[in-house]
């Protein structure tokens, strides 16, 4: 007797896959947004404060580092490590969350905050690809082009994102909303082509699905902007 399986949802909105007996779950259930809620800038417990998402939009290059609630989160991070060198990766992540990318000036400020040599901090930050050394768009679109995704049309998906945003790899779109780059592997080989937009995954992406994904991102950005405007009024 053939095994019953949940059909794969090609071109899905970014969360469905082989959900099996859990096919009744909503996107919010799968992503965890129904119980994670809004993360306070000062962090929660010291352990959780070390692992905040930092591939997020909204950073300001001129924002002060490690002041106010961010100083409180920095102190929580430092409390989890036996020395300042051990805390470097989450502190770099915090700086990127605040400013959107890690400029040489930001790396120097991190070095000063941790009492480390600026050259050492810069060497670590430039080693890892998840730290942005130059500004990126509000939405960082990473298209996996490794083996599994490549065999399933990743190159075509990459070209579709570049064409739809009017950019070359690594460029910021004219409206400031998008930067599209290749990713070596996103760890979602079972659902190619995998695409990561900031801290969110989109699975089984085809070139035909690209316009709908970008439209969804634009609508969500407009909704956030409207909500912020209402709060400020």
Question: Secondary structure elements and their pairing?
Answer:
Elements: H1 27-31, H2 33-36, H3 46-49, H4 69-78, H5 88-99, H6 104-114, H7 118-127, E1 139-144, H8 147-151, H9 154-165, E2 178-183, E3 195-197, E4 200-202, H10 210-232
Parallel strand pairs: 1-2
Antiparallel strand pairs: 1-3, 3-4
Helix pairs in contact: 5-6, 6-7
Walkthrough of the structure:
The protein is of the alpha+beta class. The chain folds into 2 domains: 1-36 and 136-233, Glutaredoxin (3-Layer(aba) Sandwich), CATH 3.40.30.10; 46-127, Arc Repressor Mutant, subunit A, CATH 1.10.10. It contains 10 helices and 4 strands; from the N terminus they run αααααααβααβββα.
- Widest β-sheet, arrangement of strands: 2-1-3-4
CATH structural fold name of the largest domain: Glutaredoxin
Question: How widely separated are the two ends?
Answer: 62 Å
Could you tell me the strand content as a percent range? 5-15%
CATH architecture verdict of the largest domain:
3-Layer(aba) Sandwich
The major pleated sheet works out as: 4 strands, mixed
Q: Give the rounded overall mean pLDDT.
A: 86
Number of domains: 2
Q: Superfamily at the CATH H level of the largest domain? A: Glutaredoxin
Return the CATH class of the largest domain.
Alpha Beta
Low-confidence stretches: 8-14
Q: Classify the secondary structure makeup into a structural class.
A: alpha+beta
Helix content range: 40-55%
Secondary-structure element order, N to C: HHHHHHHEHHEEEH
**Which term fits the overall shape?**
globular
Work out the helix count.
Answer: 10
How many β-strand stretches?
Answer: 4
Rounded radius of gyration (Å): 19 Å
């Amino acid at each position: 007797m053939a095994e019953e399986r949940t059909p794969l949802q090609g071109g899905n909105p970014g969360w469905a896959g082989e959900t099996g007996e859990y096919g009744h779950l909503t996107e919010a259930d799968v992503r965890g947004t129904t119980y994670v809620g809004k993360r306070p800038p000062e962090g929660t417990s010291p352990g959780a404060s070390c692992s905040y998402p930092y591939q997020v939009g909204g950073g300001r290059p001129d924002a002060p580092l490690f002041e106010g609630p961010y100083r409180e989160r920095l102190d929580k991070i430092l409390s989890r490590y036996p020395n300042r060198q051990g805390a470097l990766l989450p502190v770099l992540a915090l700086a990127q969350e605040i400013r959107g990318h890690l400029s040489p000036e930001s790396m120097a400020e991190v070095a000063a905050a941790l009492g480390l040599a600026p050259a050492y901090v810069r060497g670590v930050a430039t080693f890892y690809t998840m730290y942005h050394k130059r500004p990126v768009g509000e939405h960082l679109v990473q298209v996996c082009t490794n083996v599994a995704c490549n065999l399933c049309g990743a190159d075509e998906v990459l070209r579709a994102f570049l064409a739809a945003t009017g950019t070359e790899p690594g460029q910021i779109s004219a409206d400031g909303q998008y930067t599209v780059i290749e990713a070596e592997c996103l760890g979602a080989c079972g659902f190619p082509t995998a695409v990561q937009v900031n801290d969110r995954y989109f699975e089984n992406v085809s070139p035909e699905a690209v316009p709908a994904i970008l439209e969804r991102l634009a609508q969500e950005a407009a909704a956030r902007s409207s909500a912020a405007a209402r709060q400020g009024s």
